[in-house]
Amino acid sequence: MSRRIAVMGLGQMGWPITLNLARKGDRTETIVAIDADPGRVAGLAEPGVVVTTERAAVAGAEVLVLCLPDGDVVESVLFGPDGLGSRLAPGATVIDLSTIAHGQAVRIGRALEAHGFAVLDAPVSGAPAGAEAGTLTVMCGGTPETFAAMKPLLERIGTEVLHMGPLGSGQLTKTVNNVIYDINIAALAEVLPMAVAMGLDPEQLGRVVTTGTSRSYASQYFVPRILRGAFDEGYPLGKAYKDLVSAAEVAMARGFPLPVTAAATTTYQTALRAGHGDRDKGAMVLPFETMLGVKVRAPSG
């Protein structure tokens, strides 16, 4: 039976996710890809996918997939003037792949359920490369029934599609994952300049922390970029800061002590106060380089 699927948000993640949904799907499906930015839509094309800036194209969709930058945008898109929630088919399922705060995800999900929709908060991990390859990790919060119904669809975009628990559990899991990642980057940002200030060669040091026991996805991604002075290739740290805020909100509400997370947050804040919010997370190294009067760069960097 034919199914109408709408994807809202065609950025670095949204468009490759749309491509995998289309290429691995049923030919009887109709897939509509929507973005409010005409510049982002320009030039996008895929057989079987309708690409448009018109929100009205979501009308009658049985599944709405959201790939949006933050929770406020999600709320506006769903419930604001000309909100998509009023255009969906009765009983439609909303899958929110955006990364937003746990509490906001629960509030949005309950509002959608009150309108008769099924909901999964389903943030992803794997970066644009994972979105392109269809190898994302998808962390889902919602009822077991909704997860079971949507799992085959999500397996088109991810190799790990996991039910983490009730509504909000996907976002909570993503927060945990991101905070651990963020702590890794914060540690690199403050320790690498110290090591260079003590006389260690940046390039040789980079080889150790990307192959030795301290290696992590964070070091393997960011250290090569720090060594060549490239700080504009990843997600902006000003936007990524919301993960630490979300963790702090959860910890404050429940009285959980998070001393290491608090320390990493200070490192982020130092970079933000230094004006690096539009650069990627590797730019957290820059204030520490300035303080110590060194550069963590390869000779050609």
Overview of the molecule:
InterPro entries: 6-PGluconate_DH-like_C_sf, 6PGD_dom2, 6PGDH_NADP-bd, HIBADH-like_NADP-bd, HIBADH-related, NAD(P)-bd_dom_sf. Residues 168-285 form the 3-hydroxyisobutyrate dehydrogenase-like NAD-binding domain. One of its GO terms (molecular function) is oxidoreductase activity. Residues 4-165 form the 6-phosphogluconate dehydrogenase NADP-binding domain. The protein has 301 residues and is of the alpha/beta class. It has two domains: 4-166, NAD(P)-binding Rossmann-like Domain (Rossmann fold, 3-Layer(aba) Sandwich); 172-292, N-(1-d-carboxylethyl)-l-norvaline Dehydrogenase, domain 2 (Orthogonal Bundle), CATH 1.10.1040. Helices cover 48% and strands 14% of the residues. The strands form two sheets. Strands 3-2-1-4-5-6 form a six-stranded parallel β-sheet, with helices on both faces. Helix 1 links the parallel strand 1 (4-8) and strand 2. The model has no long low-confidence stretch (mean pLDDT 94).
